[in-house]
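Revision sheet: structure tokens.
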Amino acid sequence: MKTAPSFREASEVDANTLLDFMRAYYAFDGHAFDEEKARAALIALLRNPELGVAWLIGL
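Predicted:
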């Protein structure tokens, strides 16, 4: 039996997890990763829903 995925909106407490995902994706895609800039942009997104929403999916 398969477990249905669960979805939840990310918050600031998830920033380190999201930064790990971002770092891995940047490496996979061959882009330089500036953690300071990425963290600033991510925190701005997580604090302001007018900019968008990040979701985490659990299995």
